[in-house]
Write a structure and sequence with these properties.
5-stranded mixed β-sheet; alpha/beta
Length: about 300
């Protein structure tokens, strides 16, 4: 663009009012300043834009052509300002969250339910990935915040603790009775059953593999599944022993649908929470979400 936006604003106002005096009043600048700006614009474009008349000024043919485009531009700007003002008043925004399908169902949903009630005009996108993949998305600035199991190193991440989770092994009483009939005792269950675990991309699986290796438990038969909901359902139909999170099978443990298998060496509890990149300036939507979960009461 050859001229500054202010020159085109002056041209646009003079063309609308058809009078330099009225344009000066509307823009709160002097008439000589307007005349000088119009002259500068005409010189740069190499044509005359206005002709004086007894009633003021009228656009030349070239001026009419330029006005068509300039007026469209300023109307678009005005529309943008109105939409921005409306967005600010309503609190319109966009929040991108990364989370595993398991944590999404059992932990994130209560937060989102209340957050959307309070901020109904913030659009939310959810990417369901493992904790490792969520951390990669955070590092690449492809999501704003992630709900994750706390990794060993957070590096550039801020982490807000939400809860502890505990991994346990479960099966139906029918499946355990069948193992007992084959002559396997309680301490032999894991080594002689079909173990059902999350796939290797999942941080939970890595944690379980470390536990099995540390305690010299060899896996005989293995089924790998990408979702914990399926692990739970497969365990219910006597398919094997599933490693699940205690907090997510409370009902099944309470009514006896699933039985917890006692371990000689219990697994340590793990932390889950929200993480976001502290080196990146948070958007308004992220600031609102951070403030919300800091004050959220379950």
């Amino acid at each position: 663009m050859i001229q500054s936006l202010s020159c085109y604003r002056i041209f646009y106002t003079v063309a609308k009012t058809k009078n330099i005096s009225r344009a000066a009043k509307e823009l709160y600048i002097s008439q000589p300043a307007i005349s000088k700006s119009i002259q500068k614009l005409e010189d740069s474009l190499g044509c005359e834009l206005f002709r004086r008349s007894s009633r003021g000024v009228i656009l030349t043919e070239e001026g009419e052509l330029l006005f068509t485009h300039v007026s469209s531009a300023f109307e678009t700007l005005a529309l943008g300002e109105d939409k921005l003002k409306n967005s600010l008043e309503l609190g319109v925004g966009h929040l991108k969250i990364g989370v595993s399908s398991t944590l999404c169902k059992y932990i994130l949903l209560p937060y989102l339910k209340e957050f959307t009630k309070k901020y109904p005009h913030i659009n939310i996108s959810i990417t369901c990935q493992s904790t490792n993949e969520t951390l990669q998305l955070l590092e690449a600035n492809k999501i704003d915040i992630g709900l994750i199991g706390r990794p060993e190193s957070l590096k550039t991440m801020d982490f807000f603790y939400l809860a502890e989770i505990e991994d346990i092994f479960v099966a139906t009483q029918v499946y355990l009775d069948n193992l007992k009939k084959r002559g396997y005792g309680t301490d032999e269950i894991l080594s002689n059953s079909t173990l059902m675990l999350l796939d290797k991309n999942n941080m939970t699986r890595q944690y379980i593999d470390d536990y099995l290796q540390e305690n010299q438990i060899e896996i005989r038969d293995l089924i790998e599944i990408s979702a914990m909901d399926l692990l739970i359902e497969f365990a219910k139909i006597n398919l094997g022993v599933a490693c699940v999170i205690r907090e997510f099978v409370k009902d099944e443990l309470s009514d006896g649908t699933l039985i917890e298998i006692p371990l000689g060496f219990p697994m340590h509890k793990r932390e889950v929470g929200f993480a976001y990149k502290k080196t990146l300036k948070p958007s308004k939507s992220l600031e609102l979400f951070i403030d919300f979960y800091h004050n959220f009461k379950c």
